[in-house]
Every structure is written in C-alpha cells, then in structure tokens.
Design goal:
Layout (H helix, E strand, L loop, with lengths): L5 E27 L7 E19 L2 E16 L7 E14 L8 E17 L2 E27 L4 E12 L3 E12 L9 E17 L2 E15 L5 E15 L8 E16 L8 E27 L5 E28 L7 E19 L2 E16 L6 E15 L8 E17 L2 E28 L11 E5 L6 H7 L4 H7 L13 E5 L4
Antiparallel strand pairs: 1-6, 2-3, 3-4, 5-6, 7-13, 8-13, 9-10, 10-11, 12-13, 14-19, 15-16, 16-17, 18-19, 20-21
C-alpha cells in the first residue's frame, strides 16, 4: 500500500558571523593654530576620536569615510593663561577587503586610534601621525525550512526538541539628554572651556513587554580657565532614563548591544547674577540593540515505514546558543611613582583615563579578560619655568568573571567600561590611582543538530525474507526506537510484547522478544 504523508514545515532563523576582517590605517596631516590663539611652546595632551560618517558595502569589500577628530592641550609662548586648547579634524576615507562579505549582510564597523603622535613643527603648526585600527564584521541571516511533523498510514515518526535562539527585530533609536548644571559656589566662573569629557557610565538596559528600559548616568568633566586666567575643573553625574519601543521584545529577551554618545555640547551660560556659572548640557545618545530569545521547537527527528520504504533528506546545521551572560564591577588600585626625569608633584589638576580590551577567553565556568587602563594626569609641578606637567601611564590588568556552564573554546564577547577614576597625591614623587571598571560578557557556543528537511515515499518493494521472531539482547546506546527501526516493527509492539511500562528504562544485556513485520 502506498504511503500517504501529511507534512508540516517550520521556518527557523538565526544570525552568524559570516565574514570579518581587520586592518591598520596610517593617517597623517597638520594642525594649524588659529589666529586667535598664541604660539605653541609645549604640547601637554593630544587625543583623537574617530567618527565614521558613511559606509558602503559591496561583495568582499566595505568602504568607509569619516574624520579623525583631534583635541590638543598646550602651553603657549607668552600666553596670558597657563593652558590653551585647539581642535581640528583629518579626513578619513579607505576600505577593507573581506573575503566572503556580501552586500546584503548586516555589517558593523569600528575604528579606534591605536597610536597617535603629535609633534610641534613650528610655532603655528602641529604634525599629526595616527595609526587607526579598523575592524568590520558581516552577519548573515540564516533561514532553513524543516519538517516539524509527519503523519500517515504505515509511518512511524520520532519527535524531538530543538532548542535554539532566534533574533527579534533589531532596535535602533536615538534620544537626547538635556540638562543645566550649576557650578558649586566654591568654583570660579567659566571664561574658556579647555577640555571636556562626557562618558556613559553605570548603564542598565532591560527588556520589558514591547519596549526596552534604558537608564544610567552621564559623567561630565570639564577643565576650564576662569576670568583671571586660573585653571578650574569640575565633574558631575547626570542621571537619565527612558524607554525605547521594540517589536517582539519580551521580559525574557536577551539584549546585546551598546549605547553610544553621537554628539555632545557643553555651553557655558550666565546665572541670575550675570556670572558664567551654569553649563547647558545637550547630549545625543544612540542605541543599537539586538534581542535574542531561546525557543524550543518540536521537530521531526527520524521516520521509517515498517511495511514500506521512505527516503529522508537530512541536513546538519550549526547555530549559536547563549551559554551565559553577566556583568560585574571591579576596582583597580595602582601606586604611581614618578621617574627621575619627571618633575615632582605639587598638586593634581585633572586625570583622564580609558580602558581597552586586549584579549578575552573562556575557561571552565569563567570568562577571563586582559586589558589596559591608559591614564593621563595633568598636575602642577614644583618648577617655576614649567608650572604644569603631564604624566602618562599604561596599567595592564586581568579580570575573571564566573559564569557557570562556560567551557574552554566558547566564544566570549566582552565589553569594558571605565565608570570612575580618581588620583590621590601621597608625596611629591608618588600618588595612588583608583579606578572602577565594569565588565560585561556574553558567551556563545556553536551547537549542531541533524534535521529532516523532507521525506519521500518510494515504490513499495518486497522486503528480504527474515525470521518472524527473534530474541534481541540490548546493547549500550540502544533505544527502543533504534531497535524497532532496525527490525521493521514499532516501539508500541515491543513495549506490549515484553510488558515494558517505561520505554526509557531498558538496559544493556536485557533480552527482548521482537516480532518482525513481514509480508
């Protein structure tokens, strides 16, 4: 009798990194001192930030353009103030060749200054050489259609559960934080902003029904000159919170991604007394988040026809699953000793820092991360000729986060964020640096599964002659399904004949009576 099959299909989708590449780019240019600024004498700080304005993806290639924004802090010849600042930008346009990249992939691109060298060429010109590290990845959305079930006369089927993760719609949004800050009464009023840093710290991102809650703090620090030409510094935290609408987001949704500052403006304003003691803050924050949910789907694992022949089309798929995720904050404490060539400390004025990840790896039940904390300290020197000095240090560190279930060889995505930084002077030759760093990790593992994509009944053929009954001794790794399929009978018949109540409780060496189905 020919088989009549009813097939049910299901679409599965997941993302994986299909192509990636990295390169270093050398960028050179000049900064010219504006006419309103005095001549250069000594550079104290030079910092760069890459802004990618546009990217274009074609097969095996990603092109991009943007700017390297550079800020410089310097001492001037015959200047009226102890410090001056200037900004400039160098245009950036280049490409990466990445084998396997396709134009319809979802791509990400990141560029950071790995090395920045600023040198005074003459009184009005600074030469800039920068090495930029550029990395790009392309993710492919995978789809496959599989059989979730089958029914029909004369067909035996084995159902199973496939546990995998599916992506929700990506969430990309932008919000603005606006606030007005008043300087403490002990601080002098603002005449000229020299340097500003704005960081997103203490971030908390949580999935809810149909939306994502985001909250955290903006840490705003400013170095400035007052009306008498003296230096002043100021730091404050501004809390923010809000909701982003997200299609398909549920409380159980795992979220990955980042909040980033797109644009920031600090504008001094006058108070009721006419003094510049207020600061208008306008910060644009972008969110690029991806939701991922664990789903369990019932699928067809195997099938056969005791009285006929069917052909199964199978495929082995590889897909990522989240093993674990976590976040913790840890402290770094380091004694800073001045070298003989460095001028003694009189008073610390401002400290800046940045953390960078060097390497991340997984071990049994843990994620390990190595990084570097780069610190720049502006301080007053015990020297009349050089009243201000700069000290720079790179402090390596390692940190471990416990995550149960993680194994060596799993893929760890780690982010480090500097939440707080403080320097305390201990003597004219020594100080203590303290930092609070947040580490976030998501660990993925590639799983494989054999799935049935289609099943086709063949023309009926007479089976080979075989005995009607046998005594079978159960072997290690045997299941009743495997035994029934091998001898062209059914699991139900084996259970009934051998009076077995629990089909999962068979053991090696057990003897079973098997009645074969024959024409």
């Amino acid at each position: 009798m020919p088989l009549t099959l009813a097939k049910e299909t299901m679409d599965m989708n997941w993302k994986d990194t299909a192509a990636s590449g990295s390169s270093q780019i050398l960028l050179e240019g000049d900064m010219i001192v504006p006419d309103s600024k005095p001549d250069l004498q000594e550079l104290l700080r030079c910092q760069g930030n890459v802004k990618i304005r546009e990217k274009r993806v074609t097969d095996d290639r990603i092109s991009f353009s943007g700017d390297l924004e550079i800020s410089v802090l310097y001492r001037a010849k015959n200047g009226e103030r102890p410090l001056y600042a200037m900004q400039a930008s160098l245009p950036l346009e280049d490409f990466l060749h990445i084998d396997g990249l396709e134009k319809d992939m979802e791509t990400s691109l990141d560029a950071v200054p790995e090395h920045l060298d600023c040198q005074i060429i003459n009184d009005r010109k600074i030469g800039v050489k920068a090495v930029l590290g550029v990395t790009a990845t392309g993710e492919r959305q995978n789809h496959t259609e599989i059989l979730s079930g089958i029914s029909g006369e004369g067909i035996e089927s084995l159902q199973g559960i496939l546990r995998m993760e599916q992506n929700t719609a990506p969430l990309k949004d932008r919000f603005t934080v606006k606030e007005e800050i008043t300087l403490p009464s002990a601080k002098p009023e603002i005449a000229d902003v020299l340097w500003q840093t704005i960081d997103l710290i203490e971030q908390d991102i949580r999935a809810m029904d149909g939306k994502v809650m985001v909250r955290g703090n903006l840490r705003i620090c400013m170095l400035y000159c007052d009306t008498e030409g003296n230096l002043g510094s100021f730091c404050e935290k501004i809390p923010f919170s809000g909701y982003l609408e997200g299609e398909g987001i549920e409380p159980k949704t795992e979220l990955t991604g980042t909040l980033q500052i797109e644009d920031a403006k600090l504008t001094p304003t006058v108070d009721e007394d006419g003094e510049a003691r207020q600061l208008a803050v306008d910060v644009a924050v972008s969110a690029a988040l991806q939701g991922r949910e664990t789903v369990e789907r019932e699928i067809l694992q195997d099938a056969y026809a005791p009285t006929g022949i069917v052909t199964l089309e199978k495929e082995t798929i590889t897909y990522p699953v989240t093993v674990g995720s976590g976040k913790n904050q840890f402290s770094l404490k380091e004694r800073i000793h001045l070298a003989e060539s460095e001028k003694p400390l009189l008073r610390a004025e401002e400290v800046w820092g940045e953390v960078r990840l060097s390497e991340a790896r997984t071990t049994t039940d843990a994620v390990e991360a190595d990084g570097v904390l780069t610190v720049s300290l502006l301080y007053h020197c015990e020297n009349d000729e050089t009243p201000l000095c700069m000290l720079e240090r790179g402090i390596p560190f390692g940190q471990m986060m416990e995550l149960r279930g993680v194994e060596e060889g799993d893929n760890a995505a780690v982010q480090l964020r500097l939440d707080d930084l403080d320097f305390q002077m201990l003597s004219e030759q020594e100080g203590e640096l303290r930092a609070a760093v947040t580490m976030e990790a998501v660990v993925l593992r590639d799983e494989t599964a054999e799935i049935v994509k289609d099943i086709t009944p063949e023309e009926e053929a007479a089976p080979s002659p075989m005995a009607g009954a046998i005594i079978y001794m159960v072997q290690p790794q045997d299941t009743l399904w495997k035994i029934a399929k091998r001898y062209r009978t059914t699991v139900e018949d084996i259970l009934s004949i051998n009076e077995i109540e629990n089909p999962d409780l068979i053991y090696p060496g057990q003897k079973l009576l098997i009645i074969k189905m024959v024409h």
